């Protein structure tokens, strides 16, 4: 019995909970790396909040305001618990943001300048999403204006395995290495970037900031096991509403993360939806979600490999292959050797197949040509993957 057969009933039950999916049977949404669809539980929670208790947080003497303050504080702990923090709030903290971009910028522009000293070195990824590259360069410029010079090294990336090169990384580390930024799951190549090997390469004392935009909601993310110092994610890619996300900070290596000066009104309805989304994901089971998405991606990769004109980017492993080097999660990116990616995108859209076609916001060491990205989630079905393959075969 394959993973997809084994999880079929479970998947059907979950898929039925997405009104936008069940209401559009002729469409296949294959762009979840950009943003996820939302289950009914999240939509209903947000509607209930806005129709029964909407108020501002932290400033009231009446019931709705107090309940909203409690909601915000409870959801901070909920985020920490979802990320496997064994002792939420002992040292650690959770800060709400609009998405991973804002979260990474907050670490780069608020925390990093307070942590770094003249002559320090940082190591950051340039083959990853620009949201996890540009802010660190911005921090370098900000510090330079204050007379603090830091060196920025590229986190070595191995184009053969599509993982970071952990040996080269270990060689880059010096007594002045003060910070490393990395990505959990690559947003173009779909690989799980083996974060535990980064900690092993850099040693126990260096703070690591993890961009978990493509892993939270897709697989278990456990801060205790990963031993990272920041986890930054987009709630809207994890079943919550647009404009939501969070930064979890361990706060034991370097100064405490407390950005923002005077804080304004939080995104209270978004936070209500985020709490509901994390409850929904925990009930669905992150490990099962991972198995489903990985199996769908393997079906697609294996199918594409039988179609001569297509080239799959990134790690080549499927479920059948040895995944000790690199495990592909639910993202598959490819090109046709003769047809441009944007043209391919228009053809696929005319069959109701919604994919992403461009350079995928990759930072400066990224692909020079655009490609087609298919990103899967638990509401996607094997039939949608098969429809995609049959359209691609017909071109
Ligand atoms: N990091 C990665 C790996 C991403 O894939 C994305 C979005 O696609 C981001 C960061 C930025 O996320 P957001 O648009 O929610 O700020």
Protein described:
The chain has 395 residues and is α/β, with parallel strands linked by helices. The protein folds into 2 domains: 4-30 and 285-394, Aspartate Aminotransferase, domain 1 (Alpha-Beta Complex); 45-283, Aspartate Aminotransferase, domain 2 (3-Layer(aba) Sandwich), CATH 3.40.640.10. The protein contains 14 helices and 15 strands. It has helices at residues 3-6, 8-15, 19-22, 40-52, 63-82, 100-115, 134-145, 166-172, 195-202, 223-226, 268-284, 286-305, 341-350, 382-394; strands at 28-29, 93-97, 121-124, 151-154, 157-158, 163-164, 177-183, 208-211, 230-234, 245-249, 310-312, 331-336, 353-354, 356-358, 371-375. The strands form 4 sheets. A 7-stranded mixed beta sheet has the order 2-10-9-8-7-3-4, with helices on both faces. A 4-stranded antiparallel beta sheet has the order 11-12-15-14, covered by helices on one side. A two-stranded parallel ribbon has the order 1-13. Strand 8 (208-211), helix 10 and strand 9 form a beta-alpha-beta unit. The longest helix has 20 residues, at 63-82. The relative contact order is 0.16. The model is unreliable at 319-325 (pLDDT under 50). The protein binds pyridoxal-5'-phosphate. Pyridoxal-5'-phosphate binds at residues 33-34, 99-101, 129, 131-132, 183, 187, 211, 213-214, 234, 245.
């Amino acid at each position: 019995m394959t993973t997809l057969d084994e999880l079929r009933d479970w998947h059907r039950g979950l898929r039925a909970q997405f009104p936008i999916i069940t209401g559009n049977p002729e469409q296949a949404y294959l762009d979840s790396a950009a943003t996820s669809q939302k289950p009914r539980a999240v939509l209903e929670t947000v509607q209930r909040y806005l129709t029964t208790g909407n108020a501002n947080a932290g400033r009231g003497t009446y019931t709705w305001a107090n309940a909203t303050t409690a909601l915000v504080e409870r959801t901070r702990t909920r985020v920490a618990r979802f990320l496997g923090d064994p002792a939420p709030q002992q040292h650690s903290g959770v800060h709400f943001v609009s998405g991973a971009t804002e979260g990474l910028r907050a670490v780069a522009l608020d925390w990093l300048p307070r942590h770094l000293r003249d002559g320090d070195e940082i190591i950051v990824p340039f083959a990853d999403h620009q949201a996890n590259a540009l802010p660190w360069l911005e921090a370098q410029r900000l510090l330079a204006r204050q007379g603090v010079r830091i060196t920025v090294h590229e986190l070595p990336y191995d184009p053969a395995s599509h993982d970071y090169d952990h040996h080269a990384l270990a060689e880059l580390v010096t007594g002045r290495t003060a910070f490393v930024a990395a990505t959990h799951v690559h947003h173009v190549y779909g690989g799980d970037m083996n974060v535990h090997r980064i900690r092993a390469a850099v040693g126990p004392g260096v703070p690591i900031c993890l961009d978990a935009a493509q892993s939270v909601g897709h697989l278990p993310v456990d801060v205790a096991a990963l031993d990272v110092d920041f986890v930054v994610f987009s709630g809207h890619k994890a079943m919550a509403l647009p404009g939501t996300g969070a930064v979890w900070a361990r706060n034991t290596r370097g100064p405490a993360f407390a950005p923002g000066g005077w804080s304004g009104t939080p995104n209270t309805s978004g936070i209500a939806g985020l709490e509901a989304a994390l409850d929904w994901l925990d009930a669905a089971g992150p490990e099962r979600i991972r198995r489903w998405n990985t199996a769908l991606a393997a079906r697609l990769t294996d199918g594409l490999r039988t179609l001569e004109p297509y080239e799959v980017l990134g790690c080549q492993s499927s479920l059948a292959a040895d995944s000790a080097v690199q495990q592909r999660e639910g993202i598959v990116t490819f090109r046709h050797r003769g047809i441009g990616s944007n043209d391919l995108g228009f053809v696929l859209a005319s069959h109701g197949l919604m994919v992403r076609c461009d350079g995928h916001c990759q930072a400066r060491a990224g692909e020079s040509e655009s490609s087609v990205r298919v990103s899967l989630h638990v509401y996607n079905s094997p039939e949608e993957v098969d429809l995609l393959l049959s359209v691609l075969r017909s071109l």
